Amino acid sequence: MRGQQISMPVQVESIIDKLIENGFEAYAVGGCVRDTLLGREPGDWDITTSASPWQVKSIFRRTIDTGIQHGTVTVMIGKNGYEVTTYRIDGEYEDGRHPKKVAFTSELLEDLKRRDFTINAMAYSHKTGIVDAFGGMEDLKQRRIRCVGDAMERFSEDALRILRAIRFSAQLDFFIEEKTYASIMKIAPGIAKVSKERIQAELTKLLQSDHPLKIKMVYETGISRYVSPAFAGLCWQSFQIPAGLSAEKYVRWGALLRLAGPQTAIQVLKDLKLDNDTINRVRVLAEWADKKLIAQEPSLRRAMSKMLPEVWDVLIQLNGCGDEVRRLTDEIRKRGDCLDLRHLAVGGQDLIEAGIRPGKEVGQLLGQLLEQVLECPESNDKKILLELAGRWRESSGCGSC
To answer: Of 85, 94, 128, 245, which one has the fewest beta carbons inside 10 Å?
Structure first.
């Protein structure tokens, strides 16, 4: 499509121009072309070339052998790296994920035809304009996800592509073409060959998109049963993710799993190899999902003390709390009420210096003092708390405001 110009970063232009000056073909390729045509900001810019990896290394002063056996060299310009990959033909995919070997080629078309979807199989240079051999431009216009060539072949080569199709559908708000969708359903068992980490990465990107409820397609296509038993057993028909919800990872997973209960939520996330921080935050959201939050300051302070401030803000949004809970939350924070042991006016050392023997009793007393302050925030004073601790220790009674 000669003549159509798209804007590229100057560093990408310079790499392409230098390769062309040295007698090679070179293009921006894949997602960066797709996103630019859609008016989206590309996350990165990939370059494909007829130059071999060793020729690329000889042309540019600073390079990193990112995946040289597969033809990829990273060219460094300043602190930024740009992946430059030689045109290649993938060999047989023996494990349903990776080609056994790759062969380099001098033909751009051979490289493009091995790619997953038509919208990802376009190349561009200022010299030639857009190279679109498989109808990617029309699919962008129709908002359609369609495989390059035969869908069953593409998905059989790499089963992760079936999740990528759904993820792109969610990120771009495109529909999946009928034959491509039918092939996803047939090849669904192949997802069992994919690592949990790669599955999780695709599902997380899907959930973080503007259309996270398209995760229902993972269930409708039969993919879910090959992800994990806990994931497959979720009541997906009732999934709800409120509009305007933060796209942070733990927030979207929390919205998805909160009604499943804490144990199921933890199991799903552990199955998918999520990090411990995300697991802990989602666990809290699931534990508090069905608890009514009473719009009274002492009750709210106790609840707020059980979680991080940002998790509390997500919880009251997911639980649909009213204006009064939000107003009281703001008041509590504005005053700087103590909500945890770190902000208690006394610490363990203070109690020891007051004559309490180090050990279990110190921890118990600190817990009691925090409860007192959550009830009566004005009592968060060192003198008051030490007096209370002394009385409790002597009488095993409870202090009051």
So the answer is: 94
